[in-house]
# Entry
Amino acid sequence: MSLDVDNLVDAEKGLIGRAIYIDPQIYEQEARMVFARCWMYLCHESQIPKPGDFCTTFMGEDPVIVWRDTEGKVRAFLNVCRHRGNRLCRADSGNAASFTCAYHGWTYANNGCLVGVPHQAVAYNKNFDRKKWPLIGVAQLESYKGLVFATFDPSAPPLREYLGEMAWYLDAIFDRREGGVEVFPGVHKWVVPCNWKLAAENFGGDSYHGPWAHRSAMSTNFSARRPRQNDVQRFHLSPGNGHCVMGRQPDDASDAPEVVEYEKEGRAAVRERLGPRIDLVRPAVGNVFPNFAFNRGTASTIRVWHPRGPERTEIWSWVFVDKQAPGAVKETIRLTSLRSFGPAGTFEQDDIDNWQECTQTARGPVARGHMTNLQMGLGEEKFDEELGALASDFCISESNHRQFYHRWSKLMNTKDWAEL
Amino acid sequence: MSLDVDNLVDAEKGLIGRAIYIDPQIYEQEARMVFARCWMYLCHESQIPKPGDFCTTFMGEDPVIVWRDTEGKVRAFLNVCRHRGNRLCRADSGNAASFTCAYHGWTYANNGCLVGVPHQAVAYNKNFDRKKWPLIGVAQLESYKGLVFATFDPSAPPLREYLGEMAWYLDAIFDRREGGVEVFPGVHKWVVPCNWKLAAENFGGDSYHGPWAHRSAMSTNFSARRPRQNDVQRFHLSPGNGHCVMGRQPDDASDAPEVVEYEKEGRAAVRERLGPRIDLVRPAVGNVFPNFAFNRGTASTIRVWHPRGPERTEIWSWVFVDKQAPGAVKETIRLTSLRSFGPAGTFEQDDIDNWQECTQTARGPVARGHMTNLQMGLGEEKFDEELGALASDFCISESNHRQFYHRWSKLMNTKDWAEL
Amino acid sequence: MSLDVDNLVDAEKGLIGRAIYIDPQIYEQEARMVFARCWMYLCHESQIPKPGDFCTTFMGEDPVIVWRDTEGKVRAFLNVCRHRGNRLCRADSGNAASFTCAYHGWTYANNGCLVGVPHQAVAYNKNFDRKKWPLIGVAQLESYKGLVFATFDPSAPPLREYLGEMAWYLDAIFDRREGGVEVFPGVHKWVVPCNWKLAAENFGGDSYHGPWAHRSAMSTNFSARRPRQNDVQRFHLSPGNGHCVMGRQPDDASDAPEVVEYEKEGRAAVRERLGPRIDLVRPAVGNVFPNFAFNRGTASTIRVWHPRGPERTEIWSWVFVDKQAPGAVKETIRLTSLRSFGPAGTFEQDDIDNWQECTQTARGPVARGHMTNLQMGLGEEKFDEELGALASDFCISESNHRQFYHRWSKLMNTKDWAEL
Amino acid sequence: MSKGCAASDAVIVHDIEQFLYQEARLLDDCKFQEWLELITDDVRYWMPVMGRRYRKGSKGMKALDKDQYEDREFSTEDELAIFDDTKDSLERRVARLDTGMAWAEDPPSRTQRMISNVTVGHGDTPSEMKVNSNFILYRTRGDLEEDFYVGSRQDVLRSEGGKWKLSYRKILLPQNVLSSKNASSFF
Amino acid sequence: MSKGCAASDAVIVHDIEQFLYQEARLLDDCKFQEWLELITDDVRYWMPVMGRRYRKGSKGMKALDKDQYEDREFSTEDELAIFDDTKDSLERRVARLDTGMAWAEDPPSRTQRMISNVTVGHGDTPSEMKVNSNFILYRTRGDLEEDFYVGSRQDVLRSEGGKWKLSYRKILLPQNVLSSKNASSFF
Amino acid sequence: MSKGCAASDAVIVHDIEQFLYQEARLLDDCKFQEWLELITDDVRYWMPVMGRRYRKGSKGMKALDKDQYEDREFSTEDELAIFDDTKDSLERRVARLDTGMAWAEDPPSRTQRMISNVTVGHGDTPSEMKVNSNFILYRTRGDLEEDFYVGSRQDVLRSEGGKWKLSYRKILLPQNVLSSKNASSFF
Ligand code: FES
Ligand code: FES
Ligand code: FES
Ligand SMILES: [Fe+3]
Ligand SMILES: [Fe+3]
Ligand SMILES: [Fe+3]
# Structure
């Protein structure tokens, strides 16, 4: 059974019904209509460089193994034994030619094939064909600039089409310099008491909260960033399909001194790779629909908002840096990032507390009946040809939120990608 | 969707279907049909005496700020920021001209007005009108003898009409002496594993359990109260609308000696204030429908049963005393009350254990299928003109329970107050 | 409302839809259609030998008192006070002429009669008849060889008919020697994060997992059992009605030396009691539908899988031994059993971890959409006249699983026992 | 403690730790009468209630009268409390448990007290010591019920007849809404 | 301890505390072989099971035979237990973990043992001490699984070759229905 | 500790325990400035992140390159961490709490630190001691929020001007996915 969520998302008026953050039935529909269909971020290729390398993650609530096979090809499978549904791999990462299920010993190779079934010859009859019981692969898997994505939906458009103009903005984050980026080993994983969409909309477009919610961290030098008077336009960009980016002015120099220096030194090389658009905007923060987000600056993070029930989100957050950046820059970014983001992050704490309360007050039936307000800059956004995106006309706006929820409601209501 | 609860509440036969204590769908309907419509107790005026004083509470599961504005008027609002639904105030009490939301800095004055929206002039377009986004006020708010009540339902009858004849019984508890009562600073708050109605019915009419459930506390002198042979009649009173009171005999003298003395000394003054009815009964314990209860004696408490799911109740309990009582009487009442009621209360512990088990055994589908028994004194209650209430004919009875559940089932099934 | 589970259990193809392990609605239907109708194991008679002895347990989620009355007859009642539904008895075991409810003091004798109602004469009117409010007894209660079973369904067939040919297999476990078995005092009780059916199917027929899942325990001598080449046939037996047994070869001698000796010495006596069938198979492990299981060997256990929500099972596990076994055999069995089974059991730990993961991966909607595989030996099982059971043709097979789920789906879909 | 000999300080702290452990074990073992013997006749046994207040200087609210704004969160001695007991009322609490009708404690709660972070300072009189400690009181009852009461205590121990006795105890439980159904144990 | 010199008592308790802490750290660090070396060959390592019984004198039930009514809640030495191990069976438990196939412990549980309330008394022989302690064994595994095992221990430590060894351990977990999926750790 | 006099060892451990208790109390009491005074200017205050890995020798997986397979679960010093702080960044963390705008800490968390299993060894220099301890950091905030952070610490204490100061702290939280919404407290 599907609910029509149209009355809960009025993107045109900038009004949101709060049931979308708390209703179990909507959450269940979201699992089917959003997470089981969209392209989901799995990992960065630098995390599994060698044949056999694997890491485990989730697509929504479905457990997944991302596994580089012996030939070097990256694959992804449900982390579920075909026999009785046991979780096949119980580690976060490692290197494996094969996994053997702990229950009855079925063995799967890193290409997904079922290569061992104890006592098969004597116990199973000849109709049983191992080839019919490989690991369940994702429907499509593609990498974009080192970022590995997959979808369970065979009818989903190809990744490049799904990203659309967002691809360039990912280039501007993850492919600025020769060699792209690398991810520091280790991941912040923690569970926070909020609906995942509050996190996604925040990274997608919530420039508004920074100066207030994060003033304590900014005033104690956990970030060199300061909003500037002239950050006036085209700050919020919606390149389509629910993806969202926020930019800085192209000449922004509010990073740590060694980072500013590194950026300046590489400016020409970056322009060569990214083209002249990089002179118009410096993409900084964003969310790839639905739940993959990034922030690039002296504090740099990529993260996934794993849904864990209407009121719970599991955040997985990594720190990344240009591969070719000098050691000192890398160390500055490592330290600044982990002091800003993650469980002990001076920025992150205050965000999460707000997302929690935005979720939990919706428990009250009266409070739930009042729509929230996403009207900042309503009607002022315009499609910007140069940027290939719907752009706000001011440095704070809720134009990206509106695009995010518009896309979400379309996916919730529409089965056919062609109609989206 | 609404369930008809008629088959679960047979007040005429004194039978109750146990689904009303455990079914999530009934709980959800209760939130809408009972808690979002009835007059709910918020606080005592003595807790917020000065302009700016506030305390936070809940109406059902909806968070509420009770706030005396700068002009001195008591107001109540959903404790929810209109922007994105963040919880505005995170403290229990204090004094404030305004609160500023922790997320984006919207500021609300103590009259509910939205008085500050950061960057409004530059970021919002001119259609955005702050006046349209004040805090959501309750639909109606009224005080009765220092007790502040509110309802979210604009069509609910006025408080005085809602209380009906119960008003006199509240007088007899909270307005006996000049100056009324005051509440000791501090509140017992704790969560107990039972349905809230088991607590409400207990304070509303469960004289039956005292001598058995509380014998351990009575026999070790935690209370001077003893049921008496001549407590024979009109002990349980239902003044209408689901409200319930239990009385003592008018000449009861089972309190602590200093309290008895104080009562005796003030007897004439009390009669003057309350009229001759006070010579017929001494109201002692009761429940204002749905979830505000009181007990007055050497141990004196007022409390709210906040629903927190079918099997969970959050109790908030205060101790109160006549404002003009002498210090020694106040101290006796403070100590006796906290040793009887609250988490470490010698009376309260045994009550809660029973309410817990009355709730949890309903988890079994077979047990749930057998109705519980509220037949004590069935058919023996009569409307008593002198007392303005349906009265039991004996000092123990379940007549009040039947009225409580009758009202509850009417509210669950009926949208229109006129039909109630 | 009832769901048709036919599409989730395809016993003919050996495919199982995973919703049956995780869907709350199916769990609720199971409570009504399976646990409230089937014969449920309560306790062993040796646990309540004397008049007044009682123990408390659950039938599904319904709390039950098993109570030997003063005349010596074993009875079972809902552990629920008829007045307001309080849990009557809060102890696990003991000896009682009567229980008195902690709330208002209603007293019930060990024949279930309501023998005390405080103040009945003065407070209740004469229509109130104590005889109409006894403890709710189970619909039927019968013992079989010391095993006490009951059902809430008056239309369920008698126990002996319900057990059918399984009765002989119970004889072969619990009635081999004069005097039957006795249960060691004490019970392992713990909660595990899996659906109860995964435990039931495991004891019912999962010979397959032993050599792999338990190799660590076997290789460190926590069991002397080794699967043998000649354990080839008729190892899995389905005597009907969803009951399942696994056997050893009749001449198996893989127990501890003192146990082997004891078995050898008693072989003739056993054959005399059980008849010649015991020369064909030695019943060892099994599950009486739905949730009573046993294992007999050097490690011997009986246990109940109490359902506690779709993803939670409370295991109650005892150790038993032939009453007339010598002390040294009893001590060996006591120690071997508790080191194999129970929370610290070297076998049990690995089972539970697998059952947990088989349950939890079904949380993902994509994973949930793929059916699990019960195809081992599909179509190879045959009804064996000598054994009175459908028998696998090899020493590992999933034939018993298929019978278990077939019965389960019939019960879920069919109200009338005659149609089962 | 004022700086004395380190070794003798260590012995005093050890001694008091052992007193607190013995006391805890008596309570864990439900030996309430013996526990009462460790308590002076003039004891005040007190557990205030908690509240949540914005910090002084918070920008989340603007106080109307800043000078009067207080951010104290625990109730004071004449306000509401969870426990506020004398020797007499403690004795009656114990007596109640022995009536056979203290339903919430029959079958009894099983408790385990973990006492830690014991520090000691001089008291108001030479025979008294001020003792601070942290505790986890674990309680389990029924089948699966578990409660963790975590807090701290400020005790005064008095030497009477060569033995320590408890003459004052202030117990702080920092939870605002107690997540346990009762506080039926002694802390 | 029988009253000796306070300072020397303090040293003995300190010494035994340190032994228990070292033992706990070996277990937390999965150094099971080294842990086995701390254990005498004749050890009994025992954790009985719990039950719930009405108190003697309860008015909630009327016993048919009052004189025989017992309110003991833990099983005795010849009844069911959660652990009832010898040195040999402990060694085999450790060996099992090293097979590479102890699935419930691979990836391994991560544990943290908090030992507290250590008190010491004389043992049955001069070389033995009776040691009581309370513990919280925290275990986390997988992503979010957490277990808190809270209980007490009654140990006998024996001095062998100048070192303490554990010769008897009785572990009491007061929960009636264990809320953990297993007890795969040593206590 | 290398075997010295048992009594003097006991005194040193006592002394360091008291230091850790005082430190914990300052943090529990939100006296962060005073806490900073207990910390050397060159401190490294570090909490690595956790992962789950199959044990070496696991039969659940077959490594392609067995020799390179590592089962280390905590991140190293140059990898991601939860805390990796200097004196300066700790000071700024404290300063942030005093801005009146540290929303996640206003009203403040209430914490209770239980320090246990303290063992002491010689440090790299004569003025330093290596100190291991286990902890439970209990945090409650809002109405019913409760967090139990359970872990261990490896500290270096340095004697400066006759007082212990903390010059290195490595904090291990063994949970893989932290079940708390933040780690806003000091450990
Ligand atoms: S569940 Fe994986 S082999 Fe059986
Ligand atoms: S949510 Fe309150 S200001 Fe944005
Ligand atoms: S509920 Fe049992 S006597 Fe009232
Ligand atoms: Fe932010
Ligand atoms: Fe009561
Ligand atoms: Fe098994």
